Amino acid sequence: MITKFLAAAGRHGRPILATGLALSAGFLLVQAQVPALGQRAFPALMIAAMSLLPLGVVSVAGRRPNAFVVLPDVPAFSTPPRPTYTFLALAYLVMATGRTANVIRDWGSDPFLSEQLPELFTTALTLLFVAVAWGDNSVQLRPDGVWQRGLTGWLVIPWDASPAVPSLPPAPNANTVPLTCARPELVRRSGLHVFGKKLRTTDIEPWLITAAIRYYAANPVHRPAIGTEIERDRLMRELFDPFRPAPAAGT
Q1: What is the CB neighbour count within 10 angstroms for residue 120?
Q2: CA 77, 80, 83 angle in degrees (round to 5)?
Q3: Using one digit for the tens of pLDDT, what is the confidence trace for 26-81?
Q4: What residue ranges are annotated as transmembrane (predicted)?
Q5: I need a surface site. Which of 6, 93, 107, 243 has the fewest CB within 10 A?
Q6: What is the pTM of this model?
Q7: Distance between CA 57 and CA 87 in Å, rounded?
Q8: More confident residue, 239 or 59
């Protein structure tokens, strides 16, 4: 039950965030127009924040997905969107909404800098969390190579660059694994790639994505089919049981 709930929250992260932002804006509008009503709603905000933080912790501590998401329009096999960023962003959004409401309530009072500026800083930090949760933080396998995306930029390692990961399976809780390539001059990047020469594995079982990279690096004939359901199913059969014969056509 909880696994399905977390998966659904990950898939619908942006609508959930948009709803949270709309409710936050509505609360601040009420606080500006009817301060007494806003103050009565403040305890509900704190309860909401305290309920969202455990969900974020559960999503971090829970088992990582062991399957790719098929993106036929890209085409790509992508790491699933996890709700961790969404829950944490919402929790901080709730707390920042309450602190911003205090700024609205005390606007014009003295001293401004010593009491109100820290609360505005919290709001700015929350907007950064929201931006991370809203953005694309996926790692994708595409017919042309490995794509790693994030808030600050993206990295593309073409298959022609011969990307390589360690031959031994990484630890189940590994957040990154080394990612090297034989022809680094073919690597493309944009913005600031904070992970350097490492592959981010926070959103999927580390062994799965490293095994898939090794497989496609060694089997170029299958790369054009990346991004299709049929190829994803075939890849999973190959990785989970490489000695099992493929099913007959039509079965």
Answers
A1: 14
A2: 165
A3: 888 887 887 777 677 777 777 777 777 777 777 776 778 899 999 999 999 999 98
A4: 42-62
A5: 243
A6: 0.80
A7: 9
A8: 239
| Residue 216, helix vs strand vs coil | helix
Nearest to residue 246, comparing CAs of 224, 223, 222?
Answer: 222
Q: Which pair of structure tokens corresponds to residue 92? A: 């901080």
- Which tokens go with 245? 């014969």
Question: Domain residue spans in the chain?
Answer: 2-63+82-134, 139-240
Are 175 and 202 spatial neighbours (Cβ–Cβ below 8 Å)?
yes
Give the β-pairing of 153-158 and 145-150.
Answer: antiparallel
d(CA 112, CA 102): 12
The alpha carbon of residue 232 and the mean position of all alpha carbons in its chain are separated, in whole angstroms, by: 21
48's tokens:
């909401």
CA 235 to CA 212: how far, in whole Å?
Answer: 8
